[in-house]
Amino acid sequence: MKFDLDRQQPGRSVLAVKERLHSGAPEPLPAEIELDGQLTVDNLEGRVVLLGVLRGAAPAICDRCLDDFTCRFTAEVEIIVLRNVSAVGESETGVIHQRRGEVDLTEPLREAALLGLPQKMLCDEDCRGICPRCGTNRNREACGCAEEVGDPQGEEPTEL
């Protein structure tokens, strides 16, 4: 996504975001992520600040039941474009040094999306998962296997 610094009026405005990004992340993370929403743009002297929370969606596989689903999440975005290009060396995350022209926001948006993804991918908070004995997806049908209750201190599990 390109953002043109030269066409930004001073003050506050809104930037609509509707992007499909390649995550570049290894599996099991999603290969593609969609972001949608608006960022507030503050064009101040010497810098431009883009802030907001975007809605994200990505195809995923549930960690409990292994079903495919669409993971919905939010991604907090904070991007600062400094127009003072005298800075040398590595800049911190979310800070871009550029005086004029178009700024490529793809990488900061990708980073925000990857940070917004949940660590545990669940199709539903109440997902019952797969039976460890027979492999039945317990969201679809009851398997009839006895539930095991394990002792967290390492004793043998007992059946209920």
Describe this entry's structure for a reader.
This protein is mostly beta strands. It has two domains: 2-127, no CATH class; 128-160, no CATH class. Helices cover 7% and strands 42% of the residues. The protein contains one helix and nine strands. The protein has one helix at residues 106-116; strands at 2-4, 11-22, 32-44, 47-61, 68-82, 95-97, 102-104, 148-149, 158-159. The strands form three sheets. Strands 2-3-4-5-6 form a five-stranded mixed β-sheet. A hairpin with a 2-residue loop joins strand 3 and strand 4 (47-61). The model has no long low-confidence stretch (mean pLDDT 85).
Layout of secondary structure:
Layout: E1 2-4, E2 11-22, E3 32-44, E4 47-61, E5 68-82, E6 95-97, E7 102-104, H1 106-116, E8 148-149, E9 158-159
Parallel strand pairs: 5-6
Antiparallel strand pairs: 1-7, 2-3, 3-4, 4-5, 8-9
Notable traits:
160 residues; mainly beta; 2 domains; five-stranded mixed β-sheet; two-stranded antiparallel ribbon; 9 strands; 42% strand; elongated
- Percentage beta strand: 35-45%
Count of DSSP E strands?
Answer: 9
Helicity, in percent? under 10%
Q: How is the largest sheet built, in terms of strand order? A: 2-3-4-5-6
Please tell me the overall pLDDT: 85
The first-to-last residue Cα distance is: 56 Å
Uncertain ranges:
none
Specify the overall morphology.
elongated
Total helix count? 1
- What is the chain-wise order of helices and strands? EEEEEEEHEE
Into how many domains do the coordinates divide?
Answer: 2
Rg of Cα set? 23 Å
Find the structural class using helix and strand composition: mainly beta
The biggest sheet amounts to:
5 strands, mixed
